[in-house]
């Protein structure tokens, strides 16, 4: 296929946390609000005068200093974020909004102020206590946490407009960028898509790490380009897979899978478009803030949820994506030392294979994509099994 016009530019934007669009927004006087998790609604961080910045640590190959503070037996994602913070990689931030999802994430966020890693007098860190269930009681608690530790903090410290009108404008911003990303992603449902999983991964990531008002014109232009883009004459992959799991913010991981012969057609993982790019609907009688809280609690697929409704939602959502995007199987990933997703991966693998009859490959990975030989062998064997199954008519 012909190269996408802005793909190289998008790839370059992913090389640093403070890329040129982030720098431009800061120079425009916008407040840079960092976050690590879907529990913190991206929409609330895009109120007037602010922009959201989901934290990554691109090209981080060593976490020696961070491991001194956190030990080397903790999640490599949070250690990589802390390492990059110690290096000064997030000096542009005005605030970090965290969630006490696990001890490692909480400790990493605490070190931002314990070690004084952002040299701004106005910089602060705040952490919500996220709910572990999805019922009304937990929704009310979630709303109270977001009001106290996100909305009120933005208004008190920075004078941010948190009115109903401002919230509705933030929802409109979310819905527009989500519409564009979703429409691009829908092309992956075609038998011979005019976009690869790697390209979509890059596009989805830039929509999360760049100021919306600056990246949106590029995304809109890319969508129009894809509408008329001619795909390969023949589908160039041996199988189609859904990539599911925890934290994946390196598009080279998707590229590795596709180099082994399987197109990644659905992305249900932290940093993926499922969840993050669903439309927010304001129901009759609802305030904009209520709609945001309800939306994020409903769509959240974190393995941390413990009630039956959310436990059932996770595999059913993957099954929906497998069916809609015509995936032949699932690659299920968890970050090394991640307790929640390690347990979830074992349970999900049993459900997918034995109850839903979806071929599944489970892997554990480091944050940095280093030696890939073992992963490549696993992927190649799995993809070959999918190809054989397709040849034999699904038997």
The number of helices is 14
Order of helices and strands: HHEEHHEHEHHHHEHEHHEHEH
Mean pLDDT: 96
End-to-end separation in angstroms reads 33 Å
In what order do the strands lie side by side in the largest sheet?
Answer: 2-1-3-4
> In which range does the helix fraction lie?
40-55%
Structural description of this entry:
By secondary structure, this protein is α/β, with parallel strands linked by helices. The protein has helices at residues 7-13, 20-27, 64-70, 76-86, 103-114, 136-158, 164-186, 197-209, 212-227, 251-259, 288-299, 308-324, 339-355, 373-391, and strands spanning 31-35, 50-54, 95-99, 124-128, 239-247, 262-270, 329-335, 360-365. Strands 2-1-3-4 form a 4-stranded parallel β-sheet, with helices on both faces. The two termini are 33 Å apart. The model has no long low-confidence stretch (mean pLDDT 96).
Any descriptors?
4-stranded parallel beta sheet, alpha/beta, 395 residues, 14 helices, 13% strand, globular
In short, what is this structure?
The protein is α/β, with parallel strands linked by helices. The protein has 14 helices and eight strands. Helix content is 49%, strand content 13%.
